[in-house]
Amino acid sequence: MKRHILLGALALSFSVQASAQKELFLTQTECRELALQRNEELQKANHALQQAELDKDIAFSSYLPKLDGMVSGTYMFPDMDMMGMELQMHGMYLAGISIIQPLYAGGKITAGNKLARIGKESAAQNLRKTRMDVTAEADKAYWNYIAVRQKVRMLEAYQIQMDTLYRQVETAVKAGMGTDNELLRINAKRSEISYQLQKARNGADLCRMALCHTLGEPFDTQPIPVDTLIQVTAPARLDESIALRPELKLLEQQIAARQQQIKMVRGDILPQIGLSAGYAYYGNIKLNGMTADPQGNYIPFTQKLDDGIGLVMASVSIPLFHWGEGLKKVKKAKLDLQNAQLDLQRNSRLLSIEVRQAIQNLTDGYNLVQTAELGSRQANENLRVMRDRYTNGLSTLTDLLDAQSQWQQAESNRIEALTQYKTYETEYLRCTGRLGE
């Protein structure tokens, strides 16, 4: 009795757990949108763009005057002797403001602003690249999950076929019109299908968790793809241009950044001109001493000093001799520019190869879909014919089992070809810089 109660409790527990799984119906577009909303790398790329915006504003402030204020208090001891008088600063205060305006900084301010604008453009391109990568990852996870789910359903249908065949042969054996050897062969096939089905279900669960990870959903979520009827059309004229690739634009902006960095380094060996102005007010300074009155008697006196002073100053700084340090830094920066240009040449070729590979995959993928669909139609027809012939005693069990195996393989090939084509489609758009545009 206790055993039955325990089994019932376990069954109820599994039932509650299964019903607690959240079902999430998804189209391909919704899958992309959800992945883009929750991807951590995309959020970081967006933050990098915001930081680049702030860097641009910070760089622009170098053109503007800087206004600073200052307040200080001093208590000095002992008092100072100044030509027979005593200077006393017990709580002296000083307050002032100053303004500094750079007039010429060797071109570093202008170069710094251009560099900040390049940084903002690079961050925007990096955000585009990350969006495309996330979209491609979401598509791949989505179609992989669809493929493995369809394989599970196909194997379940195959299992039903074998179960039906087993019952037919079992009835024939009981009626003396079949042999036990036929039942054994069907049972062996049923065991093989059960093994394949278990593997497919395990694979489906792994693909489900991979899709949940891509979507930022809990791992107990049950995504249900909506796009199960996959339509494939012949690829139109395919463009090999890489002009829209964010990677190419990032390489071009790297060259532009190196050019501005040369100007920044060169600015260190050019004159620096600035203008500054300020005003300060000081007080609570006392001067104690002795002075003679009209009768010639010496009496003590105290004089308080409270006043303000203004200051305007122009400055010019000219580097004269630093043992060639500045020129060597310029040469080093120019070498960095040449390296960036070499990177552009090399990676442009690699990007072009990647696009051509994507085009080849897409073309081959479409041809595979046509071949797989033809094979699937032929396998279905062959299976139908063999069933009729076996029922009418015109073919052997071996022929029927072979036809069913061919049907399974053809269906598996069709599923793989269709879902792989959709992945190739996404990859082509990513490689040409048009994914999600």
From TrEMBL:
Record localization: Cell outer membrane
Keyword Transport (UniProt): yes
Superkingdom of origin: Bacteria
GO cellular component, one term: cell outer membrane
Secretion signal, residue range per the UniProt entry: 1-20
Keywords, comma-separated and alphabetical: Cell outer membrane, Membrane, Signal, Transmembrane, Transmembrane beta strand, Transport
GO molecular function: efflux transmembrane transporter activity; porin activity
Family statement: Belongs to the outer membrane factor (OMF) (TC 1.B.17) family.
PANTHER family: OUTER MEMBRANE PROTEIN TOLC (PTHR30026)
Protein name: TolC family protein
Source organism (scientific name): Phocaeicola barnesiae
Lineage: Bacteria, Pseudomonadati, Bacteroidota, Bacteroidia, Bacteroidales
